[in-house]
Design brief:
The chain has helices spanning 48-56, 78-81, 102-110, 124-137, 154-167, 184-200, 212-217, 236-240, 244-255, and strands at 5-14, 22-32, 37-41, 63-68, 71-72, 85-88, 172-176, 205-208, 221-226, 229-235. The protein is of the alpha/beta class. The protein has one domain (5-97, 168-263): Rossmann fold, CATH 3.40.50. The protein has a six-stranded mixed sheet, sandwiched between helices. The chain binds adenosine-5'-diphosphate and magnesium ion. Adenosine-5'-diphosphate (ADP) binds at residues 14, 22, 24, 42, 44-50. One of its GO terms (cellular component) is plasma membrane. It comes from Streptococcus danieliae.
Length: 266
């Protein structure tokens, strides 16, 4: 099987040649198969967000290559990559335009990759599609389509952002601690929605989480980063049977280090 996304020996150094030189990605390799739902964990500063930035194109790699469906995208602009790669951030404010309504935000997402912007307003045919999609969230947002998103809660905004990220099926969905700013109950709600959307649309998704239990519970594959490299990569049956203790043991075995307690939330 060929990979949908192939990350090949990528390196990234910040502030090269200065006293603050920081070699963050140190030869990262990952073959992502179509339909993989990969949870990514690693301590603070392990390079998780940097990895996503290099995939989304907001940062360029220093060396190595990134292939999407077999074609190198490493020099493609972030705007062009956004047609195929959608992204949800930690901050609920990042995903939607506050002063646009729910339906206007959805229209922007729906027209991703097309030349036409919002100039012709939201069409009735589009509104119907959006309403059906919103109903599936189960949050009642289908009755508030003309409300600006600034009036929604953080959880509602993240749910809407997820829906927008998948309205036009992306080749890859990137989730960077997208529930970390939410209270535990809302976080669980958004995680469940994530699972539902990924499964329903058969998405290929990479999800960074700080929460080991979430990483174990969700996805078919789990990757752990340490000092800019992948030190754990478990999938299938092994992933399904994984426990926190297994994971700590695997980390210890492969990195030669023990995890500091507060490095990750359990
Ligand atoms: N744009 C940047 N410029 C300089 N240093 C950066 C930049 N982005 C990240 N870093 C540094 O790279 C390291 C890894 O950061 P990051 O990938 O955000 O870690 P995390 O695994 O917590 O998401 C950190 O030491 C961080 O300070
Ligand atoms: Mg991060």
């Amino acid at each position: 099987m060929t990979s949908i996304l192939s990350i090949q020996d990528i390196h990234k150094t910040f502030e090269a040649g200065t006293i603050n030189e920081n070699h963050v990605l140190r030869g990262m390799n990952l073959e992502v198969e179509e339909g993989d739902f990969i949870s990514i964990i690693g301590g603070n500063g392990a390079g998780k967000s940097t990895l996503m930035n290099t995939l989304a194109g907001t940062l360029l790699v220093d060396s190595g290559d990134i292939l999407l469906e077999g074609k190198s995208i490493k020099t493609v602009s972030a705007a062009k990559r956004a047609v195929d790669i959608s992204r949800v951030f930690q901050d609920p404010k990042m995903g939607t335009a506050s002063r646009l309504t729910i339906e206007e935000n959805m229209a922007v997402a729906y027209r991703r990759g097309q030349k036409r912007g919002l100039s012709w307003g939201v069409k009735d045919s589009e509104r119907k599609v959006f309403k059906e999609a919103l109903k599936e969230l189960g949050l009642g947002l289908e009755n508030r389509m003309k409300v600006d998103t600034q009036f929604l809660s953080g959880g509602q905004r993240q749910a809407l952002t997820l829906l927008m990220a998948s309205l036009v099926k992306p080749k890859v969905l990137l989730l960077d601690e997208h529930t970390a700013a939410l209270d535990p109950k809302t976080s669980d709600m958004v995680m469940d929605l994530t699972k539902k959307i990924v499964e329903k649309d058969k998405l290929t998704a990479l999800m960074i989480t700080h929460n080991m239990e979430n990483a174990i519970e969700y996805g078919n594959r789990l990757v752990m980063l340490h000092q800019g490299r992948i030190v754990v990569d478990v999938k299938g049956e092994e992933k399904a049977n994984l426990t926190v203790q297994n994971l700590l043991d695997l980390f210890h075995k492969n990195s030669g280090q023990a995890l500091v307690d507060d490095e990750m939330m359990l």
